[in-house]
Amino acid sequence: MESQREGRSSTVALSDLQSFSFRQSPVLIVENFWSADERQYFRDAMNQAAWKSLSDLPKVREDFPDSGNWAKAEIGPAQGNRFLSRLQLPCIQEYMESFPNITGRHMGFSYYSYSAGDCLLTHDDTSQGEPVGGRLAPRRRIAVVAYFHEEWQSDWGGELIVYATRSAHTAEKPALSVTHCIEPRPGSLVMFTVPRFHRVCRVDQTAGQHRRLSIAGWFMTEHA
Ligand SMILES: O=C(O)CCC(=O)C(=O)O
Ligand SMILES: [Fe+2]
């Protein structure tokens, strides 16, 4: 039994979530965070959403070459509110408010759908677009990913791999070592502090028509 538990040391029980701290432990995994009803609710909304695939999004594709053709859609206001209402957690509030001189707080979440052949190459979530109107772009502080597909099997791939940097952060391509390999289990919630290198493994052909459905985005702070 011990060996089965080992690689899951970052998995936090729902009952321990209230006392979790990103300062102590920068990667949070909560399994079965979203109920079957919630998963169904978000999947229904995803079915109604206006999806755009990477081939329709040339600028995103520039940032993520060789990533297949995953699709993205905007989350509606009702769904955004329902999603956020479940994320009223002290660990988020505490971490966000720990940065000095915050002049604004932002968040942004979208739907994502990965089919067989799709992946997301290694990145650290720091690319944040150009400053707008002379103001600094908000800084991404906490990345959030939640999985809403009905079923996922290990053979289907699509794991979220999280890395630590082994060399000084100045190198163009720092040497990395895997700290977490997270299966996209239905109902899991994953959060981690940014910057942090990570990638989504390619979804295998064995997934057939099954899609890896997620909501992902960031909590951000703005500074003068
Ligand atoms: O889907 C995931 O597991 C992670 C997605 C991600 O890293 C991103 O959208 O920036
Ligand atoms: Fe990311």
UniProtKB/TrEMBL annotation:
TM segment ranges: none
Cofactor: L-ascorbate
Keyword annotations: Dioxygenase, Iron, Metal-binding, Oxidoreductase, Vitamin C
Source superkingdom: Bacteria
Domain called Fe2OG dioxygenase: residue spans: 103-221
InterPro entries noted in UniProt: Oxoglu/Fe-dep_dioxygenase_dom (IPR005123), Pro_4_hyd_alph (IPR006620), TPA1/OFD1_N (IPR039558), uS12_prolyl_hydroxylase (IPR051842)
PANTHER family reported in the protein's UniProt record: HISTONE ACETYLTRANSFERASE COMPLEX, PROLYL 3-HYDROXYLASE OGFOD1
Name the record gives this protein: Fe2OG dioxygenase domain-containing protein
Native species: Nitrospira lenta
